[in-house]
Amino acid sequence: MRLLVTGGAGFIGANFVHLVLREHPEHEVTVLDALTYAGRRENLEGVAGSFRFVEGSVCDGGLVDDLVGATDAVVHFAAESHNDNSFLHPVSFVETNTLGTAVLLDAARRHGTRFHHVSTDEVYGELPLEGGERFRPDTPLAPTSFYSASKAGADLLVRAAARQFGVATTLSNCSNNYGPYQHVEKFIPRQITNILDGKRPKLYGDGRNVRDWIHVEDHNRAVLAVLEQGRVGETYLIGANGERSNREVLAAILEVMGKEPDFFEHVADRPGHDLRYAIDATKIRDELGWTPRYEDFRTGLAATVAWYEANEAWWRPEKRETEARYQTLGR
Ligand code: NAD
Ligand code: TDX
User: How far apart are CA 50 and CA 28, in angstroms?
Assistant: First the structure.
């Protein structure tokens, strides 16, 4: 298969390209990536097999039309992905996440190209802390930020393209990822690299908010399963039963890194901070036989800590500017 991977120089996309070309050398991969602050060409160093990199935006209709016309399937990761940045430049989230998806779908419509859209559990809004309720494929969309609303807009366009134009779409909504190549703006890498710098980790608010953590490789194996065996027109939720409060995640990081449990500080909460996300992944497990390989969060976390310890040259250039952005936000 000829695959067009958008956002393939970012965290999840780069891990996806490495996985696909390692395990399916028969595929040909073209990456389309605008190389924003979040995309790094070096994330794709060492990929084996048939691989081509194109620098450009998913909003560039002419370029997208050429690339989609020359591919069998699009796997669409490209996005503005960080909630905190949507306080600083909200409109670019709508441009990339919503408009960019529309541009890709329009090209897929013209060329009859298979389209897999990578989305997030945040489109379903927040769950209460107590009660054990989880998101399911029929949970109504109820986004709460410019990030999640711009992703929900894209999800709706994907569903519309399937029905209105007959595009062969699939959609997956995954929970919080962690693993190698994640930008130091995100929770887990920010705290690991703060500790490596001798600084205290920063916990928003009271730290009781819950996220449902999954290792990036498990997410990507699920995306591949949906691409290869998913039913066209369907939505699959991806999660690994990884619910943990931010306090619990931080406690685990501190323990893995040999720090005292109180080596952190509370900072101002994120305005509108969603309380809890949790995924019911029954559908993808039952229909496609997918199961996560990293069932034990501590093992995946320890491997991730080791990766940041070994790759300071990778994260160091982004660290200072990222912390300056947080200073602007007061967190
Ligand atoms: P990331 O920010 O690390 O990477 C995004 C990539 O998209 C970067 O390489 C960037 O250069 C590229 N990009 C941005 N704007 C572009 C544009 N206009 N045209 C082309 N490329 C552009 O993001 P990530 O964490 O790897 O997330 C990838 C996808 O997965 C996103 O769609 C995100 O919504 C979704 N997702 C992420 C998580 C998570 O926990 N990180 C969970 C569920 C779903
Ligand atoms: O310094 C911090 N301190 C802190 O307490 C940071 C950066 C975050 N947090 C909290 C906020 C969240 O409750 O940790 C939790 C995780 O934060 P992020 O890593 O920013 O992720 P989140 O906002 O949950 O969104 C992530 O998961 C869903 C990804 O960034 C999205 O792309 C994905 O769609």
Answer: 5
Count of domains observed in the chain: 1
CATH number of the domain bearing residue 80: 3.40.50.720
Catalytic residue status for 265: no
147 catalytic residue (yes or no): yes
Residue 290 region by backbone torsions, left for phi larger than 0, else alpha for psi between -120 and 50, else beta: beta
Instruction: Please answer whether residues 197 and 319 qualify as being in contact, where contact means their C-beta atoms are separated by less than 8 angstroms.
Output: yes
> Nearest 5 degrees, angle CA 93-CA 96-CA 100?
145
User: Is 279 among the domain residues?
Assistant: no
Per residue in 125-184, pLDDT tens? 999 999 999 999 999 999 999 999 999 999 999 999 999 999 999 999 999 999 999 999
Closest residue (by CA) to atom 36 of ligand 1?
Answer: 120
User: For the whole model, what pTM was predicted?
Assistant: 0.98
- Is 87 inside any structural domain? yes
- For residue 194 and ligand 2, the question of a CB distance below 6 A is answered with no
Residue 100 lies in a domain: yes
Q: Does some domain include residue 321?
A: no
